[in-house]
Design a protein that fits this description.
Length: about 400
């Protein structure tokens, strides 16, 4: 790669950073998706009705997002001043312990809800600090690919998680799965953070996080507000599918639990294929917001047709196509924040973005889906929330694409 006169040369070690962040992403997404996979067994163990599934499942899922969102907003500025590497060390230790505690303490719905909230708090700073590290180590024309590497960890976890966790739950019980995941965080993610990540970087410049203006000033930027609105709607889509898909397939489409791994993970195989495609296209064509707009519309329409498909196989196939196009936003969202703001402000501003998008889109969206399921007794009706969010995001991201050349 050639460097223009006066430009800062990229560091030769920069690609190690997203590899370490990928390892952390895999483990913390195992942890956050574990409840969705354990939920059918918890339902059977406790004999919940459809209404109780909607109410209790909604609380378990949405409380994670509430803790996660609050941590993004309140802890990211502190973590950025503390240093992304040290902050991620504390995060990994905390979310590993919070996950393992589901085994001895998860004897009541209240305890499980509390632990989900603590898990969300523990994981809240991960993506803000990942964004801070990428903005410090990579030039703007490489950031979709750099972000795409650790975002690929999400898809890897979503794909591999059911195949690892469903048999573990089936043979040893859902409590044993949580113990195993807690150990994995301490044995895999923590060494990656300690041994590989660094806080410095050639693009940090002379401004430290401590000297940066208040992160709340970003709300004066209309481009940031559009990114935030897009993030809220995208979170309704992606988390609505991630958190409710296993229960939808098991309860709404009567897929046997032993077959749940293949059915629940199949749509996200397409996401793993899509990440390098959208990341490379975004960096090379500089049309990230436009790609994300079109992708969101196709994803929303796809979920509608999937909910009305005549067979489980067709439902899974259409959802796979929807996830492929929705990934156009996942590979662009942090690059868009990093494009709008200087590196010294990226961590805290990403925390605000991530936190508000998670609370409103993740917690609010999944709770709304649960409420509709509870009220109507229909999982298909709940998925219409996802459809509406995807279609509305076409407009929001289309406006953003017209405003910025990125």
């Amino acid at each position: 790669m050639t460097t223009a006169p006066g430009a800062i040369a990229p560091s030769p070690i920069r690609w190690r950073m997203p590899i370490a962040l990928l390892m952390v992403s895999v483990v913390n997404w195992f942890d956050r998706s574990a409840m969705s996979l354990a939920l059918p067994k918890i339902i059977a163990e406790r004999g919940w009705t459809t209404a109780e599934i909607g109410a209790n499942g909604g609380r378990l899922i949405s409380m994670f997002f509430l803790g996660y969102g609050l941590a993004n907003i309140l802890l990211s500025p502190i973590a950025e001043r503390f240093g992304p590497r040290k902050a991620l060390m504390v995060s990994v230790i905390a979310f590993s312990i919070a996950t393992a505690l589901n085994a001895p303490l998860g004897t009541s719905i209240a305890a499980l809800v509390a632990l989900r909230f603590l898990l969300g708090v523990s994981e809240g700073i991960h993506f803000p600090m990942a964004g801070a590290i990428v903005s410090r180590w990579f030039p703007a024309n490489e950031r979709s690919r750099a972000n795409g590497i650790y975002i690929f960890g999400i898809q890897g976890a979503v794909i591999a998680g059911p195949f690892l966790m469903v048999p573990l739950i089936d043979h040893f019980g859902w409590r044993s799965m949580f113990v195993a995941l807690g150990a994995l965080g301490l044995l895999l993610a923590l060494p990656a953070v300690v041994g590989i990540l660094r806080d410095d970087g050639p693009y940090l410049g002379n401004n430290s996080a401590a000297e940066a203006p208040s992160p709340w000033t970003v709300f004066r930027d209309p481009n940031y507000l559009l990114v935030l609105a897009a993030g809220i709607l995208a979170n309704i889509v992606i988390y609505g599918l991630l958190t409710w898909l296993p229960t939808y397939l098991a309860e709404g489409r009567r897929v046997p639990f032993a077959d749940l791994a293949a059915s629940a993970s199949a749509p996200f195989w397409m996401g793993s294929v899509a990440i390098p495609i959208w990341a490379v296209l975004g960096d090379r064509m500089n049309r990230r917001a436009l790609f994300a707009s079109v992708g969101s519309g196709i994803a929303g329409a796809g979920v509608y047709f999937a909910a009305h498909a005549s067979s489980v196989g067709l439902t899974v196939a259409i959802l796979s196509l929807a996830i492929f196009f929705q990934t156009a936003y996942q590979t662009s969202e942090y690059a868009l924040v990093q494009r709008i703001l200087p590196p010294a402000r990226v961590g805290a501003a990403t925390g605000l973005y991530n936190g508000l998008a998670i609370i409103v889109g993740g917690a609010g969206g999944t709770a709304l889906i649960g409420g509709i399921v509870e009220a109507t007794g229909s999982y298909d009706s709940g998925l219409m929330v996802v459809v509406a969010a995807g279609l509305l995001n076409v407009v929001v991201l289309g406006l953003l694409a017209r405003r910025i050349n990125y």
